[in-house]
Structures are given as structure tokens and as C-alpha cells.
Amino acid sequence: MKDARVCLVTLGIADIARSAAFYAALGWQRTGAGNESVAFLQGEGLVLGLFGRDDLAEDAHVAFPADSPPAPITLAINMPSEAEVDRLYAAALAAGATATKPPEKVFWGGYSGYFSDPDGHLWELAHNPFFALDENGHLDLVGNQDEPSA
Fold first, then answer.
1. Which pLDDT tens digit goes with each residue over 39-62?
2. pTM for this structure?
3. How far from 33 is each of 19, 40, 41, 47, CA to CA, in Å?
4. Left (φ > 0), alpha (ψ -120 to 50) or beta: where does 66 sit?
5. How far apart are CA 35 and CA 52, in angstroms?
6. Long-range contacts of 59-64 (CB under 8 A, 24+ apart)
7. d(CA 111, CA 125)
8. Residue 67 or residue 100, greater confidence
9. How far apart, in whole angstroms, are the C-alpha atoms of residue 56 and residue 44?
10. Contact, 45 vs 6, CB < 8 A?
11. Mean pLDDT of the chain
């Protein structure tokens, strides 16, 4: 399973300083790595890269139309309780996020809400009572299973 992991998520953003301050307000730690085109923030088991949108397009050899929204993807943070979802959701809004769906009980038996960051990237905050977090707050669906899946 060593290859089946995500180590770094890079977001194409408009303003590195603004986005770095936003994510720092949510608990990500700005590192000394990077330069004027990219910043790296350390999270719990994952690094978040903030790359200028145009520089990211050039690096990947793709074109992002100027008015195109972020890709249809959601990044998620699982929290240990509904109260922790509410706390981090409020912190995100206070830091400049846009509310898209306030936290609420959801059809699958959990509790979740969505916000978008200053560049429109969609984040879900969720408490899933069926997915236990380990002692480090990590989600481990394989380690939490009673029997291996086929």
C-alpha cells in the first residue's frame, strides 16, 4: 500500500499570501519550502501546496481559461464530533471561506457541511460515526474493518 497514498494536494490559486493566511487560520502550518510562485503548508499527514493558477497551468502544460471554476472535486476533513465540525466550519467562515452548506445531519447518518475557500475550492467537514478516526485523528478504513474486503 505504500504507493496508494496522497502526500501533497496542490491547489491553483490567485493570491498565495491570501490563501496561505486562510489555511493557516484553519490550522495548517506554513513551511519554509516554496518561493514566490508556490507555498507549502503542513497538515496532519498531508502537505497542501498553493501554486499560482497560471504557474500551475504552465507547469502541467494545460490551459485554464481565465473564468473557469476549480475542478469538480471536494476535499474533506473528517472530525471526531459534530461540535468539532461546527467549530472548524465557523473558523473557516471567519477566515474568509464562503458557506455553501451549513453543517447538518445528513441522509447517510452523519453530520457534514461544505464551504469554498477564497479561490472556490470546495471543502467538506464531516463527522461520520461509522468511520472511526485513529489515535492520531487519521481515517483508516482498512484498519477499522473486522474482515478484509474481497
1. 999 998 899 999 999 999 898 899
2. 0.85
3. 16, 6, 9, 11
4. alpha
5. 11
6. 64/12
7. 8
8. 100
9. 24
10. no
11. 89
